[in-house]
Task: structure prediction
Amino acid sequence: MPEPVTPDVRDRPVRVAIVGTGAIAREAHLPAYRALGGEVDVVAAFDIDEASCRAFCADGSVPYAYTDLGKMLAEQRPDLVSVCTPPAVHREQTTAALAAGAWVWCEKPPCRSLEEYAAMEAAEGGEGGPYASIVFQHRFGSGADRVRALIARGAVGRPLVAHCQTTWYRGTDYYQVPWRGNWAAEGGGPTMGHGIHQMDLLLDLLGPWSQVRAMTGRLVHDVETEDVSTALVRFASGAMATVVNSVVSPQEMSRIRIDCERATIELTHLYQHSDDDWRITPAPGVALEELAAWRETGENVPSSHLAQLRPLVADLRAGRRPRASGADGRTSLELAAALYKSAFTDSTVKAGEIGPGDPFHAAMNGGATGRAL
Result:
């Protein structure tokens, strides 16, 4: 079992290594680390593509480039590792980093199955870490924080009906990347790779779900996985929701709507949201003034990798479990697994029923071959 982070990390910059040097590392992770200034020190990067890794390091002023992950972990001894690679290697790379004593910040989807996620959880340290947190940046930011607080304290009444929509568009060129669109490499289609962000935010706001009934389809793209999924979800609270995930929708939108007893809460955006993207409509007879103050105090902090990274670094320094890790990081993957099982088996799936021994615990398609849906 790896040793927890040493106390001196509280008094020095957090040493960071980035695994995978593609677009998400360049456009999201490295800029987020740079925004923290002296709080962190990005010391190294790893990629199996040496040219890509060296270019990333040269462009980003990262001192050391590696094509051997084990060597990088041993020589640089990072405190925190960003995993920015395709889903098929998330488990392997996350567990390697944890074994080396580093905390992990792993891109979504966290891995290809609940079985792989269990292996990642088992590789975490004891009290104090190291822990593996998943990139679910849409649940972070001031708007999500304030709406979550409104719901939690009962200001908008009991949540009743919700809609969760990730309707995006991806052309055939998107699937020219070899690992996209097949079960073995990606683990699933837009349910896993796109809609999981909004699904995670919905779960973060409404709490545990109790049952799912779903359908998936391959309506446009010549790939193994779905390009559309729909689901009906009942929550433990009694609230009911529809979930739609698509990559065939020309008018792209990410949307959550929650009808509560005293107000309707709406969020409409695409890849990032701020306070201005949320709207609250009071029910008849409810004074708007009671609900308007939610966005009038405090800083307007957009959802972003940086919004999640700031508390993650603070948690690392304090040796406490971060949000979107452990059981909290598994919730969205569990919902995705239930959605797929329901679609493949034409049945209602209840929370907690997919465990070791269930084929949908080992793979999102339940081990079906080829293009079956």
About this structure: Residues 207 and 235 are 7 Å apart (CA to CA). Confidence is low (pLDDT under 50) at residues 1-7.
